[in-house]
Amino acid sequence: MTTFELAVQDEHGIDVANRLAADRLELCSALPLGGVTPSLGLIEAAVAARSPSSSSDVRLPDAATATRPGGVPVHVLVRPRPGGFEYTPAEVATTVRDVRHAVAAGAAGVVIGGLRDGHIDSALVDRVVAAADGAEVTFHRAFDLLADPIRGIEELIGLGVRRILTAGCPTVVADGLPGLRHLVTAASGRVEIQAGGGVSPALIPALLATGVPAVHASAKTVVPDSGTLTLGSAATGPDAGRETTDERTALRLIEALRTAGSRP
């Protein structure tokens, strides 16, 4: 069975993930920047989520209406800043502290990544695995920048990483299907290869044909912003709005997985 992970960045996304019974949710902030570490309050809210909301007008299939017992497992993205993946000692220390806080708050796993001179930052990963103290560790799409991904798989297995998020190439999954197939074969079930990066419902059949055991998507939409004040250098103006989870797209992804026979 192919599992589905929904990447979310706010309370609405947490609610959608629980009501649609995603297999996991990846929690972050600032998805338009690739995601950074969310606040402790948001982590606590995601962990505490238990029951479906009655506020949505989306009609769900019967199989998708039941919230998972205890809520959807929360995997927290721990990334100290936007930009590249080579971190200073101070940023590494912050990452390790944030991993400990996330796990202490009830996260089932953390999502991290770090490079050093084009290779996996094994010292960072080793410290994160230790700090996670048994919680699952996913290595994110920094993996797609490795010159030798097969060697990277072996190294991450040795370090105790549970899952690798990858598009199979440095761009998007639509371009990385042959690479994903190659990675699945190389992993041989020893580490989970999770396809992510531009996943759409239309791509699901092609992704499943690669043999990936997991799919990751953010199912984003833009909500118009009624404010007239823009804050920050990345702001694009008051008419740009903000990104949040689109429940209908998330549902279409789940339906596509179910139609392909990968989900109950």
Automatic annotation (TrEMBL):
Keywords: Cytoplasm
Compartment(s): Cytoplasm
UniProt KW Metal-binding keyword: no
Gene3D superfamilies with a match to the protein in the record: Copper homeostasis (CutC) domain
Family annotation (SUPFAM superfamilies): CutC-like
Family under the similarity heading: Belongs to the CutC family.
Protein name (database record): PF03932 family protein CutC
Phylogenetic classification of the source organism: Bacteria, Bacillati, Actinomycetota, Actinomycetes, Micromonosporales
